[in-house]
Amino acid sequence: MSRQQSAAFVSIQGAVLTPEEKAVIKDISPIGFTLFKRNIENKIQLKRLTEDIKNTLEREDILFGTDQEGGRVRRLTEPEFPSYASQETLGRLYEEVSPQAAQTATKLHASLIAHDLRECGLNLNFAPVLDIQYPYTAPVLKSRCFSSSKAITAELGKIMVEEYINQGIIPCIKHLPGHGRIQSDPHLTTPKITASLKDLTQDFYPFQKLAPFTPFGMSAHIIIEQIDPQHPLTQSSEGIQKIIRDLIGFNGFLISDSITMNALHGSLIERAQATLSAGCDAYCYCDGELSDLKILASFPQELSPQTQHRLDEAKRILQNTPQFSANYQDYQSLIGQIEAYKDTYDSTTVLERMKQLSKNEQ
Description:
By secondary structure, the protein is of the alpha/beta class. The chain has helices at residues 19-28, 43-57, 87-96, 99-119, 139-142, 150-166, 197-210, 237-247, 268-278, 290-297, 305-315, 328-335, 347-361; strands spanning 6-10, 30-35, 63-66, 68-70, 73-74, 124-125, 170-176, 192-193, 216-219, 223-224, 253-258, 282-284.
């Protein structure tokens, strides 16, 4: 009989489970796993990996998520998988061609990606990004935003969320409550936002519009000085309650961004504990290091009844029967030529830079 689930999303190091990893993930018994490019070789291998994890944990209810946004941030890449445009491209299509073209392309985008995910045994996409694009938005984020318009961001985000749900994939809106104003990379440092709450209503708007029907959301590692000048929002009980839960009205499952980003501080256990204590439903660990997984195994954190309810509500989406009819040629005819994937500034590469920076500071 499998043990009680822990409030954790974890990752592993490679494309297959090692015996040591099998033992430690049994001890952790996480809600789910985040898959990165290092875990993905092809469709058959990825499907085998997800099945191996389920067999190891003796559970069928595991969530397998990845960041398949399109553009620079995509884990399923050529030549095994089709190319997908950035959210910025979809937003520009809206502004420069027509709203109808962008609406159609966005729906095709989500439908095609959902099909790719299902073929590999994945059931959760950490998308769409609902952050507002500003002229000064950090390069790590800028092309991942739909638009500088809160209305366009909300409209295209809604289309994407609804299509993922229709296709039996759990979408995850990010990064709550909005961090388009950041001018530094939270992988490497802690961004601070000094804008007033009145000004921040623009950033909150897309999340407010999607909150009533979106099952999953990811928190931002940012300090909002008007709310909590001491703690990143992920670890701020006041920020999560006042902004995400009350003002935005998001009552879905809240997962943290990666707790190993340098925006957060303290030991691995301290980061996980602070994240859950502040009000996140689960922490997300992305580095896949066996030594870290062993540490997290010593920190079992069972789900509260409220968290379990939010999780159960999200999982209802997995029962939806996909109605796949999207055509990639139709999508490409709207989007145009898509630049081939490059890992020169993908988030996977940023994680490596982040770990190196941490070692240098030790």
